[in-house]
Amino acid sequence: MAAKPGIPKGTRDFSPVEMAKRNYIFNTIRDVFHLFGYQQIETPSMENLSTLMGKYGDEGDKLLFKIQNSGDYFNGITDEELLSRNAVKLASKFCEKGLRYDLTVPFARYVVMHRDEISFPFKRYQIQPVWRADRPQKGRYREFYQCDADVVGSNSLLNEVELVQMIDRVFGKFGVRVSIKINNRKILTGIAEIIGEADKIVDITVAIDKLDKIGLENVNAELASKGIPQEAIDKLQPIILLSGSNEEKLETLKTVLATSEAGLKGVEESEFILKTVSALGVKSEVELDLTLARGLNYYTGAIFEVKALDVQIGSISGGGRYDNLTGVFGMDGMSGVGISFGADRIFDVLNQLDLYPKEAVNGTELLFVNFGDKEAAYCLPILTKVREAGVRAEIYPDASKMKKQMGYANDKQIPFVAIVGENEMNEGKLTLKNMTTGEQSLVTPDELLAVVKA
Amino acid sequence: MAAKPGIPKGTRDFSPVEMAKRNYIFNTIRDVFHLFGYQQIETPSMENLSTLMGKYGDEGDKLLFKIQNSGDYFNGITDEELLSRNAVKLASKFCEKGLRYDLTVPFARYVVMHRDEISFPFKRYQIQPVWRADRPQKGRYREFYQCDADVVGSNSLLNEVELVQMIDRVFGKFGVRVSIKINNRKILTGIAEIIGEADKIVDITVAIDKLDKIGLENVNAELASKGIPQEAIDKLQPIILLSGSNEEKLETLKTVLATSEAGLKGVEESEFILKTVSALGVKSEVELDLTLARGLNYYTGAIFEVKALDVQIGSISGGGRYDNLTGVFGMDGMSGVGISFGADRIFDVLNQLDLYPKEAVNGTELLFVNFGDKEAAYCLPILTKVREAGVRAEIYPDASKMKKQMGYANDKQIPFVAIVGENEMNEGKLTLKNMTTGEQSLVTPDELLAVVKA
Fold it and tell me: Is the ipTM reported for this complex over the cut 0.90?
């Protein structure tokens, strides 16, 4: 007998129920993307390694899945090189292609290749799997979907406003209460400027983030332990203790950052986004949060992050503004802003809060039990008509034992079962069983349709 | 400057318009799958090579994309092995994983791994890309989507009937006239039996298929040239000349195959499928076609193939009944029947016949022109309301030149544009331009919504 098959570690099969839930998530997000004028693209799973390498740092390069060249992959490699066993160096000889690591680099590559046919500003979304040779662990997979929306070729803050509205609408549709956190890279730059410690900005945000947990004294001690001079720590006090409404925070920052051009610009941008969003009436809480420091190497303006309020889990969505998407491919000045929805975490959140609508599962609504050839022949035209009316329906294909057929209906959570034997055929009717209530009734085909569609 | 980036040969980017069309195709098929009780699964892109190797013949093994092991892939390979440069043999040392080559083997693997949680008969569909290191050529790609529906764990011919109904409904929805060809492996076995030439069945079907083109004499000559004795060719005459309605063909076959148990079984199965399908009223032409010989190594009963009637192109869908899906993984007796829709060819057919409905493109319905901050601020609440009403709408994010903004509307084929300047703001109205007719009218926000939604 063949060995029992398995799947590579860090990968997953998605069963029908999981798929239905995932489709509900992606379709909901997709509808919002369309509502805001975003258009879908897809890029190949495989990219040339020359496109991928060097874009994610040394660590990222190691995590790329590389595809062995077809045919004689030893071609062009000397014996000496082979015996050197230099896995990193020879990878580029054995392999010309790799699996995409994220959606951003392929998007940048796409924009450069298709620049002449794209009408900018280009609002694109992309929902595709990515692959990373990470050590698999709970909640971290080697293959997972990313779900990104970006608009490139526009510096307007209206794009940031729209993205906040989109986040608000997506989670509103899901019924998940979220807090949308906003920061701005320029504010962080301003803070670094006024205290003269540009390279300590991450240490500072990490320390400030602990204020609630460890208190002001300990925050200041941590800052000192990171080598930040007392004078700078003194200047940081109003920022560490920043509180109140977004408006109050912004007013404080205007004073503190008065001498930093970048800082004031960041405050102004944040003010516009927060005011406009608030005027347009989003339902989620939107909060200026200076401790938000995701993607600092990459983001140049607004930074977003979304936290679920009723589930303990990391951020379920995030993004920001960047200045130069395509510079690595020799095309400068392509700024943009984007967000990414974390499908796996959203899946977990909706599961924990039990928020999947029943319709989302898209399953069979009506099963015809099969008692034999004659009964099946009686059912088939009715089944065909029922489907014609848009009802998802099936007949159990074999005349198996009743128990097995009802078990099938239960497993597939089919809400209605039609049963046809001698009596029903003689009367031109069917017995319709409501699987939820257990109720049974003798109905005509038209009545059956009315009940099931109700 | 960095080199201009490209993509691996045989792969494709899908632009927004292509994506919208592809989504229309997949969503249409998906809806039909759901209507018939099929449920979606997804399997990982990467499978263990032990799962994939040996399933597609030697040629197929060569066409698998193999993924280089992470870390030190030289581990466990001796210097002698390296210097042997045996690319085929060492591939299994360098690589443990490969990209999926089709959806059937991963499905079989899935069924074996999840047998205890599946409620049989299991009606599953799967729409995912597959990868083959084929030589790229026109219409043949190294990455392409397959779209398969199978039901396993049931021998009932009602499954075959349903699949024909599904094919009929899918192409009916597309508006593509098709001919659904049906054959049965057992009929072909019967033919081989009565003439005593079991290994010549492919030669025979190929020769018969040429009847219309080259005439009976040449068909017989070709059969003789393939080493089929005259006596056998004589017996084949009624089969070569088989014509008339499906009923007439079946009657002839009953006589010709009278001494073959398998042959008669095949006739009986075909008769049931054709009669039942016809009684249920499919719209497509359904034809018994003995020259249909796809997947003869694999199919054991019914064989299907779908041809578009109004476009010159290969089959756009096909499938059949198989006896033992999971035997290669040590689980016997799992018979099933399935069909596969050829997405790329269907895409071409719908393009050639111009059959994409306008709604399929899902694009923006209304663009607000942006004349500046004040005008944008006036538009934003209206835009928000319009979206609230389900209209896909956007505002041009920058106050660019009118020409550029109108060009954007044209490129995205946006049917309505709202223009707001001083006058409109003073009157609390908007100028709405119908981009198809060129008509302009001054409307209130409510009137705008009514026109755009109409």
Answer: yes
